[in-house]
Each structure stands twice: as structure tokens, then as C-alpha cells.
Amino acid sequence: MSNQIKIKVADLIGSPLCISAEDGQKVFDKVEHLVKTGKQVTVSFENVSMLISLFLNVAIGQLYNSFNEETVRAQLKVEGLSSDDMELLKRVVDNAKKYYSNKKSYDDAWQEEDQNEE
Amino acid sequence: MKVSVGTIESDCHGFNSIADISSKTKDAWIDSIELDLSSCSFFEANMAAPLYVVIARLRDKLNDVSITNMPSVINTILRKNKFLSIFNQSDLTDINQTTLPFKIFKLNAGDQFNDYLDIYMKGKGIPSMSDALTKRFKQSLFEIFLNASIHSQSESGIFVCGQFYPKKHRIDFTIADAGVGILENVQNYLRNPNIDSCDAIKWAMVEGHTTKTKNHPGGLGLKLIKDFIQINGGKFQVVSRFGYYELSANREFLQKMNNDFTGTCINIEINTEDNNSYYLKSELKSEDIF
Q1: Which A positions 89-108 lie with beta carbon below 8 A of chain B?
Q2: Nearest-CA distance A53 → chain B (Å)
Q3: What is the pLDDT of residues A2-59, one digit of tens each?
Q4: In chain B, positions 51-110, which contact chain A (CB-CB < 8 Å)?
């Protein structure tokens, strides 16, 4: 097996719509396995007509729970995304890095606030 | 039991009026509920979605709901957008094709929602918008729809409805559910029963905040929509329980309503004449992202 693997998202999930967490999980499971075994992975979004943050959070964002930033940077590439979707992915990735680095800090602040009633 | 329904527009007053029906009928059980529209002089078609939240809850408690004394102009609007089919009234042909009709989707029906948008966004009356705007608008609607799928636990599904207002160059699209609401989700997640509806909405609007993670990050959807609407010059409303949030070109505010809207409703109004490109001038490469 080659060390370079391309995952065609639309083929894998059987749809041009990258909208659900379940489909995102399908992509994540494949990518995670391949990165773990040292492969270079290209995630291709060719033929995808709709992409939202929920899907990317699960498919890509979750990788930062399994791997450090260096590993992801070294082994993962994406292709077939328009400029605005690249920006969306960038926000998802930045959010994921923040999420896994200080998971509870936002919430703790809120748990002590406000004593309102309705 | 007879409940009077006044004018309903896509604003805080309109949502509060719909929530008022809910408050007045909250104890109704196997009853007959008559929504009297004799004093309703205007009903913005997209508000059929939040109205159905109240109706779905009443029907769930086996109440027989009817609409009476509806002015003919409103009857026409609500038959064109197929809302009155839930009261067994026949649909009217939408000759101008400015309507995205009322429809109820199951929680997992993202694919059908896509088909719906494909069909009705291409109506002859819907203006041809720039590709970037159309894409960003559709993306926003999917973010909302999927938010409702994941968070609402709504047993009666997700209710959608839209309307193009040609003179204003605006499309309003509304997505509502009769689920648990943002308040309960945030209270449970933060284990803080003292948070109120406005606090809960405020919390949910912060980038990275989400009540359902299952070990993956989230909480970007509402922030992305907010950013989009700010550039587009449109309007964005989030209504859940007593909380009302609105962002428009002139202002952003959160307000406590007098009545309890027993679900969640999000309305997006976009300026259809927007020609923004919606991406940065410098193109990101794969290696810039990770």
C-alpha cells in the first residue's frame, strides 16, 4: 500500500452534502486510522456541494484530540475546497485547537454567574 | 377556548404575540382551541413556522386547534405558502413564486431539506443572487437546520418557511422547533439552574460554546451566521423561551419577552442585492490551515 492515501469524501459518505455529524464521523474514523499508521492523507472535497462547520468539527476538528498539531500538519492535506470553505476549515481548526487546549475554562466561568429567575 | 391573535410581523412584538397564545393555552388538554384572527391585520408569511410551534404543542396535548375569522388577504398568504394545509385548507398557486412554503421535516431529514431549497430557491420571483451570497445563505440555513436536529429533541420535527419581499429586496427564512429550547440545554450543560433565557442565548452565541460535544469541538454555527449577516446587512433573530435576540444593521440586542415561547426559532433575513465576495483576498493553502 502506498504511503500517500487520498480520501474522496463525497464517495465515502455517498453524498455531496457534508452536513451531518454521522458522516463527519465516518471521515474522521478513516483519517484517524491512516494517520495513526503513519500515512500521508489527502482529504478531497471534490464534488461536495455543501459543507458546514458541524461536519468539519467532527471530521477534522476531532483529530486534534488524537494527534498533536505537528502530526496533523505533517500528515494531512486537503484539496478541492473553494476559498471560502478553506476559511471555514481554518476557523474549525483554530476552534478545535482552542477547545482541546482549555476545554473547561469557558464553562467554569459561567457556572458561577447570575442568580436570575424567570 | 378562544384566543385572539393580533398582527404578526418578524419582530420581538410578533414573537411575543405568538408566545402569548402559548401562555394562554398552557393548561389546555383535550380541549377545543380557536385562534381568532379577526384583529390580525398583517401576518408575515415566514412567521407561520413559529406559530406552528405553538400549534404542534397544543395538538400534542390532543387539543383540536382551529383558525377563525381570518381576513381574506391573510388567508391568501397562508394558503400560498401551504401553511393552511395543516388545517385541511387547499393550497393556492403562488403565481409570483416568492414563497418558500411551510414544511415540516423529521430531525434527520437534512437531504430532504436540501431538495426543498433546490426547488424553491429557484422560484422565478426569487431574485438571482450572487453565487457567493446564495452559497453563504444556504450554508447558514443548514447550520441552523442541523443545530435544531442535534439540540432540540423536538418530537414534532423542524418547521421551516420563507418569503421573498421584492420591494424590500429581502428574503426571510425561518426555522423553528418545539423542542426543549436553548435554556434547558445550557442550564443542564453548565449545571446551573439560575441561568435565564437571555443568558442562555448569550452563552450560545459565543464562538466555541456548544452543549453537545460528544468529545468533538463545536459552537461555530451561530457565530458564522452572525458574521455573515453583519457583512450582508441583513437581520438575524434567535428566539427561545423568554429570550429574544436580534442583530441587524443598526443594532444588536437581547430582550426578555413577557411570554414563554416554548421552543426555539431562528430567522434570517438577507439583503438580496449584496455583492460581497465573502472570502479573504489572500487565498489560504492547505499548509496554512493545520
Answers
A1: 89-93, 95-96, 98-100, 106-107
A2: 6
A3: 789 999 999 999 999 999 999 999 999 999 999 999 999 999 999 999 999 999 999 9
A4: 108, 110
Helix-helix angle B131-151:B110-120, to 10 degrees:
150
Would you tell me how many other CB atoms lie within 10 Å of the CB of residue B202? Answer: 18
Homologous superfamily, domain B2-277: Histidine kinase-like ATPase, C-terminal domain (3.30.565.10)
The DSSP line for A17-34 is EE--HHHHHHHHHHHHHH
3-class secondary structure, A79: strand
CB atoms within 10 A of CB A12: 16
- Domain-by-domain residue ranges, chain B? 2-277
Interchain contact, B215 vs A62, CB within 8 Å = yes
Which has the closest alpha carbon to B156: B243, B237, B52?
B52
Question: What pLDDT is attached to residue A1?
Answer: 65
Q: ipTM value, please give it.
A: 0.89
Report the SS3 class of residue B138. Answer: helix
B91: amino acid identity, one letter: D
pLDDT digits (tens, 9 = 90+) for B134-170: 899 999 999 999 999 888 888 899 999 999 998 899 9
Surface of A (48-77) touching B: CB under 8 A? 50-54, 57-58, 61-62, 64-65, 69, 72-73, 76-77
How far lies B268's CA from each of B48, B139, B226, B260, in Å? 14, 12, 10, 21
- Which residue type does B97 have? Q
The pTM for the full model equals 0.92
Position B128, amino acid: S
DSSP string, B90-131: PP---TT--EEEEEEE-TT-HHHHHHHHHHHTT-TTSPPPPH
